[in-house]
Amino acid sequence: HSTFQCSPALQLITLIPNLSWTFPSSADTMIPCQLLDGKLLQRSKRGWMWNQFFLLEEYTGNDHQYVGKLHSNMDKDDGTVKYVLTGEGAGTLFLIDEKSGDIHATKRLDREEQAMYTLHAKVLNRFTNEELEPDTEFNIKIHDINDNPPKFSKEVFFASVPEMSEVGTSVVTITADDADDQTYGNSAKLVYSILQGQPYFSVDSENGTIKTALPGMDREVKENYQVVIQAKDMAGQMGGLSGTTTVCIMLSDVNDSPPRFANHSFRLTAAESTVIGGAIGRIKADDPDLGRNAEMAYSIMGGNDAFNIITDQTTQEGVIIIKKALDYETKRDYEFRVEVKNTYLDARFIHGLQFKDYATVKVTVEDVDEPPVFTRNPYIIEVHEDTAAGSFVGVVSARDPDAESKLVKYSIDRHTDLERLFNIDSVNGTITTLKALDREMSKWHNISVVANEINNPRQTTRVPVFIKVLDVNDNAPEFAMSYDTFVCENVKAGQLIQTISAVDTDEPLVGHKFVFSINPTNPNFTIIDREDNTANILTQRGGFSRREMSLYFLPIVISDNDYPVQSSTSTLIVRVCACDSRGNMQSCNPEVLPFSDGLTTGALVAILLCVIILLMIVVLFAALRRQRKKEPLIISKEDVRDNVVSYNDEGGGEEDTQAFDIGTLRNPEVMDANKLRRDIIPEMLFPFRRTSPIKDNTDVRDFINGRLHENDSDPTAPPYDSLATYAYEGSGSLAESLSSLESAATEGDQDFEYLSNWGPHFKKLAEMYIGKSPDRET
């Protein structure tokens, strides 16, 4: 509240912010009043009012947010005054009650989009729209709240610092930006802290500068570090928002390690026939530094007449060569000292350290036929795992010490490489991989390389080659076991339901360090990393129901701390179970309530199957009905299922003997051959005669023989075999022959009255022939 004093009468009035006040005395007698804190009120015809309102951004209420109130002395509360609002956001963002003058904001406002709005207020007569007072300008200022977290420009930064740097050496400065108001409160005041990377590094809380915090960090021990930096607003106070970024810091190499011989004595042999300038062996000093810090130079102390040593710049080996011709009979043994030192020295580390080393080399001159000699015995080669097939592993070298210097052939003893993981070039001894190597399967591979003289295969030398598989962080951590997790329906928020752990088949130098995380927006569960490679799963809420969901699938991201970082997502299945009051599980089966509001999936599938079956029955019934409607081929009381041939040829009746000859049906081949054409004159005028059936009672055999004789003596018979059929009933038939053949000539002379005596079976036949009788027709 603000208290101010007015004259001539002393009036103490308490003002509430965001409200405009009108004094009870007349405007003519009022004089300007002054607030006790030095702020002035502006006087207008409509009374005393604030020229500025304040509004918090990101208002989350459901109703319109109240901003302030306008009031005019012309308003007598009789409903004749109307307030009108114009300017930025008027009518859309800000609304005014035209009767009371109350101003409301219609939606959430963001200060980062616009910090202040300028509006104008008018007082009009509601009925005439006459302007009662001139418009007045006022501002609505949006007050900032802490709604924007700090953000870094990159998710991952890369930096380097020399190894062995002093404590407090600056590595890199990274800063974050906060979109909140820099001039108001602590919403944009950032404080930096380190979440991961201690005790190796620290960060300046004010400017974000990362510095070394541990002396003597050696690159040869650990080269890469991951540092997680957090920027938190509200000056780091509780409730502030934060953002993080990862800084990958690599220790750059300095020459802090002198070269050292692994063996301070080397023994070499040389054939007396070795040419001048020929190499008889190599010696190697180890320097863990990199680049030019690991460059070495070899020399022979005091010089030597017979030998010299040069440096192989590629392998940093000392190659011993022949300086003059050797004579086995003159001198068989030589001994000299070799010095190795770095070619580049760092003045900071030369005090107290000798950046040189010495080794003794003994050379024996031989004049015997010896097998090939390897330059090293044994060979220790390092190769990274996951190396692709066909990749280079190392080189073994052997030579023939004899004067002839016979060629050497290399091979691998397959008894020592049963899995056939390696191959060797038979000429140059280059060892390559045949399969990809996996350190988790085997850390060492011990093989034997055989060198044979080509001209004398009996001269054989074996050398053990120890291949060390270096670890690469290529396996992501995963659950240490399969978890059976359940949550009770009556569980409360924040209750522990499972403790999980992880395993990783890799072996980092500093040990395993796993980080567990889940989606922070998960409304059901949360996770707390215990910082000991385990994590607790807690409930985010209470009141789980098997009816709503019986299973929850909780994805958990597990990351390691090696380089590069490997992570995997494992899913924890959480069952919802019914428990007693002490939290003991009783049942985890989903409940099927008889009066459920909805249908289960099984019920919906059953209903769908029933509908499909009904549709199939309807379609089948319709198809059967349609098939029944088709008329049959033969509509008859006697449905004979034989071959039925229909003829659409209507004859001229029984008397039409020219249109159709019944004899054709009896003997179609003979009759067709003998049939005379009616449209041309026949070439043969022999009439076709038919012999009447035998009238006496002769046997069927005689009848057939007679017919055969007739056909043989018939001049009109065809000149090829033919089949003739006859319908002779035989002599035993009372009705004699019923054939109509040869009946055309005697049809008119026959009497068919006897057919009426044959009984009802021949009634139809009797009516047909008796009806055609000439006597009856007359």
Features:
single chain, flat, Cadherin-like_dom, mainly beta, signal, cell membrane, 6 helices, 778 residues
Characterize this entry briefly.
With 778 residues, this protein is mostly beta strands.
Report on the structure:
The protein is mainly beta. 8% of the residues lie in helices and 34% in strands. Strands 40, 42, 45, 46 and 47 form a five-stranded mixed β-sheet that branches. Strands 6-12-11-8 form a four-stranded mixed β-sheet, with no helix packed on it. Strands 14-21-20-17 form a four-stranded mixed β-sheet, with no helix packed on it. The longest helix has 28 residues, at 601-628.
Low-confidence stretches: 1-49, 592-597, 633-643, 670-674, 677-681, 684-695
Note the beta-strand portion: 25-35%
- Please give the radius of gyration in angstroms: 59 Å
Q: Give the total of beta strands.
A: 47
Describe the secondary structure blueprint for this structure.
Blueprint: E1 2-6, E2 11-15, E3 34-35, E4 42-44, E5 47-49, E6 52-56, E7 65-69, E8 81-87, E9 94-96, E10 102-105, E11 116-125, E12 131-143, E13 151-152, E14 156-162, E15 170-173, E16 176-177, E17 191-196, E18 201-203, E19 209-212, E20 224-232, E21 242-252, E22 260-261, E23 265-271, E24 279-286, E25 296-300, E26 307-312, E27 317-322, E28 333-342, E29 356-366, E30 373-374, E31 379-384, E32 392-395, E33 398-399, E34 408-412, E35 422-424, E36 430-433, E37 444-453, E38 460-470, E39 478-479, E40 485-488, E41 496-503, E42 515-517, E43 525-529, E44 534-539, E45 551-559, E46 567-579, E47 585-587, H1 601-628, H2 663-666, H3 668-674, H4 700-713, H5 763-770, H6 774-777
Parallel strand pairs: 6-12, 14-21, 23-29, 31-38, 40-46
Antiparallel strand pairs: 1-2, 1-3, 4-5, 7-10, 8-11, 9-10, 11-12, 13-16, 15-19, 17-20, 18-19, 20-21, 22-24, 24-27, 25-28, 26-27, 28-29, 30-33, 32-36, 34-37, 35-36, 37-38, 39-41, 41-44, 42-45, 43-44, 45-46, 46-47
